Amino acid sequence: MEFNLDKSLEILRQTPYTLQRMLDGLSDEWTQYGGGPDDWSPYDVLGHLIHGENTDWIARADIILAQGENKNFVPFDRLAQFEESKGKTLDDLLTEFAYARNANIEKVVRWQLTDEQLDLTGIHPTFGEVTLRQLLATWVVHDLNHIRQIVRFMARKYDEAVGPWKEYLTILK
């Protein structure tokens, strides 16, 4: 499938609703306990997504679209959520994520991006030159990756409880 902005926005719009429906009202045992720097809980993932909304996707797109002298992206702190989410509830994070995502989508829509703009480049600190098209495609897959991460984290809570059926549950492997 080739990149398509409208189809990308379909996924980006749905992520906050997907997470809200999946996580709202669940106990902390499902959403918070057991996570850490190498094994993020749903709570941790939400904090990470919020940090990305505030400092990554749109900030980098702005750099690309400005086509200024400095097209270098600021390195992204992929662990910032552990400090930034302190003292917040899961409901706080779900609300904050939905608000930030909606604001960012509105901004992308207002840009009315052309194919020429989607081909503009910025400089990623690890990958070097990347296009706006690649950045936006990555935003979509990043969402899907973290939804998978949340589901896998939650499934592992019943790793032992499923008994012999574990053999057929690929999510637990």
Helicity level: 55-70%
Low-confidence stretches: none
| N-to-C series of helices and strands | HHHHHHHEEH
CATH-scheme architecture: Up-down Bundle
- In CATH terms, the superfamily is dinb family like domain
By CATH, the topology is Four Helix Bundle (Hemerythrin (Met), subunit A)
Radius of gyration over C-alpha positions, nearest whole angstrom? 18 Å
DSSP E strands, number:
2
How many helices? The count is 8
Question: How large a portion of the residues is in β-strands, by DSSP E?
Answer: under 5%
What general outline do the C-alpha atoms trace? elongated
Average pLDDT number: 95
The total tally of domains equals 1
- In CATH, what is the class? Mainly Alpha
Largest sheet features: 2 strands, antiparallel
Strand arrangement across the biggest beta sheet: 1-2
Distance between the termini: 28 Å
Structural class: mainly alpha
Question: What topology emerges from the helices and strands here?
Answer:
Elements: H1 5-23, H2 28-31, H3 42-55, H4 57-66, H5 81-84, H6 90-111, H7 115-118, E1 121-124, E2 128-131, H8 132-155
Antiparallel strand pairs: 1-2
What is this entry, summarized?
The chain is mainly alpha-helical.
Description:
With 173 residues, the chain is mostly helical. The protein has one domain (5-148): dinb family like domain (Four Helix Bundle (Hemerythrin (Met), subunit A)), CATH 1.20.120. The chain has eight helices and two strands, in the order αααααααββα. The protein has helices at residues 5-23, 28-31, 42-55, 57-66, 81-84, 90-111, 115-118, 132-155; strands at residues 121-124, 128-131. The two termini are 28 Å apart.
